[in-house]
Here is the input.
Amino acid sequence: NRGIFKQNDPIDANGNLYPSMESMWTSATAVRQVYWLWQIWELWIPLSELGVASSLLVPTNLRVQGWRLRLRELYRDTMADTSISPVVPSNGLEDRGFDTLVSRDSPAEPTSVSEPSVDASLKQLGECWEAWCRKASVSVADPLQAIAQHLQTEHPSLTAIASQLNHLLLEQAAHQPLRLQIAGITATGSSHSHNEDSCYPTKADLIKDPEQSQDPLIPHLSIICDGIGGHEGGEIASQLALQSIKLQVRALLAELNEDPELMTPELVTENLSAIIRVANNMISSRNDQQERESRRRMATTLTLALQLPQMVNTPEGKTNGHEIYIASVGDSRAYWLTPDYCQQLTVDDDVATREVRLGRSLYRQALQRSDAQALTQALGTKEAELLRPTVQRFIVEEDGLLLLCSDGLSNNNLIEKFGRDLPQKVNSHRISVESAAESLIELGFKHNGQDDISVVLTYCAVSPQYPTVLNLGDISSSKELQVVNLEQQTALTPSLPAEITTTNDKKPETTRSYRDWIRALFGLLGVVGILVGAGAILLATQWVLAPEGFQKMRDRFFPSPDPNLPESSPTDQELPDN
Here is the structure.
């Protein structure tokens, strides 16, 4: 059973295995340690139903690429875990985040089930976790230890474990303030008479005037809709979807603001799926009203990212939990870009993917089909009950770029080939987020032909901001002002509970201003000291080399009193003349 090569083996570009989670455990941050365990927990039930949950119990089988957990191979279970009741269908892997653990170059392919088999039970999982908890960061060691021990009880509560682990993950992520900068651009392909793409936000949505109110969705929501080519009214469908989703997300955030309880990932997923189905029905109803059939029906792809601004209680106060939910239908994509890797976060809904998921073909073989890239679902083509949006949660725990784009940019693996340079340039402030988005549009037109291209780029930063000396030259930069205004408007938005730069970030700003004044004062004193020292050295040199000239200069500035004049007393100086 070991003869089938896996397309998604956790190997780097040089063919080397990614490091094991165990080898990276002690050097990882607390939030990353919890994030890895959360991903294991998300996989436990679906893999148990497939009889391969023991794959999560072999330390050397768990590989990591940054935040992402990967499986090297699958191990067959010898004993079913009777403590788990079936709660998802047999194809639940794709619905419960299995795709987050595999390469985004292609969907998960059929793979061998390796021997020898091992037992798989929640008790075994708890024992594995307990061993890791002993080496965990101090801030999470005790709560993780409690969860591991709960797993080893006779009847562990899966709901309680998921809730505790989720809250711990959000709490650890919230310790660093989340800062967001966003830019969106859509451009018409030269071979098209009009643009069938729609995206949000665009330049028109980003208010530069601080006196004007910013859209409360900015910078939390980003959307890409690609009207499907070959269907009449693609541009209408993409606009209908975009406007419908914006309206519904506003209502969702208003509800979030009123409810003090944290929304669980399952509840958020249900809400976003419902939002997408409502948008689908709007387009479908328009098609029915206009009696559009088959390929005449309006349709669009959809990929959205929602940074959910729900507040998490931490010792520092209430702060943003760093959650981003990514939902997709069709082949518009989402990527996470850092200087170290380019990770695709979505899987295309096309024929090639369908054939792999049904176990009928390997991905590379499926790509040889003439209809390999034909979409299997899009908004507007079918009833909402038949639509299966993919919704996943992503936790921001490192600096990076979240890219949403239409296939005009992502085709031919263009992002994987050329996208790695952008994060470093944006991180170092060599280019702005808007300039980075513009460069991606140019890249798409240069390499991928003449299709419409849409890009929404969000810079997510969690690294501490260290004090810097104020550079007055930067104040005149309009692009820098735009970024500041965006953050200020977000922080002042009354309808959202989350400030993108949280209260943790305000203290360093005050400290930086105070330190700037201190530095300026010490700098001035330093200049004065240098001038005085230089003058003293000059006088000493003249006294040694030309004593007569030095004596004349001293007599000129400090003349000796005339010995013939009588000395006056302080009392005499105070008396008036008679």
